[in-house]
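Question (not urgent): is this output format expected?
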Amino acid sequence: MTDAVIHARKRTPCAATWVQDAHCFVGANADVLSQFPCYCGCGPMGHGSNYACFWQREGVLDTHALGCGICVDIAQDVMRGMKQGHLPEIPSAVDDDKHFTAHQPPIAKC
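Got this back:
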């Protein structure tokens, strides 16, 4: 288990399992998720990629994705694609709304 995964589990104890999984996956696959833009409208927050929705930099958690289902959906879909042995084409994945799975907002409850 990488330091990013351990850190994500410790920092998101109240988040739903699928949200924790997304944080861990993004932390362990920064090189991949840094290539995927986010389309939730978080650009003005300084988020230039889906990675930035989860991590400000390696080891420093960004809490935005804890409350944004779109960010988590993008990470989950990339994770699912990697498990199946492929990645969606980056530009078309974001442009094609039907590609991403829709979850309820990932609200942490403690």
